[in-house]
Amino acid sequence: MLPGEFDYVRPRDLQEAVQALARYGGESKVLAGGQSLIPLLKLRFAAPSVLIDINRVDGLEYARISNGTFAIGARTRQAALAHDAGVHEHIPTVASASPQVADPIVRNWGTLGGSLVHADPAGDMGAVMLATRAELVALSVRGERVIPAREFFLGPFTTALEPDELLVEVRIPRAVGRPVGSYLKLERKVGDFATVAVAMSLDKDGGTVRQAGIGLTAVGAANLAATAAEDALTGSRLDEPTIREAARLAADACDPRSDIRGSAEYKRDVVRVFVQRALQRAARGDA
Ligand SMILES: Cc1cc2nc3c(=O)[nH]c(=O)nc-3n(C[C@H](O)[C@H](O)[C@H](O)COP(=O)(O)OP(=O)(O)OC[C@H]3O[C@@H](n4cnc5c(N)ncnc54)[C@H](O)[C@@H]3O)c2cc1C
Question: Could you tell me the pTM of the whole model?
Fold first, then answer.
């Protein structure tokens, strides 16, 4: 199908971009990689009267340490994250998840910001942001607003971003101790959306867990944080009974739906198995 008619605006800098958003707000859509938006336009599930293309805006693609956080520009391509040495060193959960998003062609275009604002409950990076306790930085003509990832995902394809706000940066706190992380994804074939996936992020001090983050994909109306499991892990030494209890609590936290990919019971058990597996690898030092 062909998209409906729309006007096209191509701002050159952030100021122009937020001014365009202030002017057109809810009538407009930001175009980043287009990997989710273009299919929606073609199917006419989205029919904005204006497209604001941010691909020529300077200063939105980077991944670097900044003020104690790891800062990632919202237009950073998923492929760039998969290959970034700093990402591998400082935020292993992102390094593990990025190459598992879609396929190489989608990753070359798709952006971290687009993936988060699209807020597909089966999207991978939302769970990673929950596990790493990221903060999302929104910009509008009113100024900057910092939104914790845990307050960003409100429901299927729904976020806390206002219609006139542009997502400009993601800030991931750096581990005080050693960062440990992984992303385990069950997919029907390589390149698919997840049937179930689990993001795990630990800040470890020797053998002790200072802070734990567990995000879940495709087992609820939005990406979910398994907070009871995180609490059970915090302060532990990742012994086997604690790992099994955290895995059970994470499985309890999810709310999957039965569909052609599997029953709700099956998906819930995959969450349990993946959380257990990710934590066992972390305990052995392999994650
Ligand atoms: C074949 C295929 C397979 C895929 N498989 C997976 C998968 O396995 N896992 C997965 O997680 N994803 C998958 N995706 C989705 C992919 O990751 C998309 O690239 C991503 O969801 C959207 O990123 P984008 O940059 O293309 O955003 P766009 O499509 O350009 O935009 C998506 C939405 O975000 C808004 N937006 C974008 N950037 C901003 C911004 N900076 N500020 C405010 N609003 C913004 C847009 O207005 C739009 O509403 C797949 C997509 C395809 C086509």
Answer: 0.97
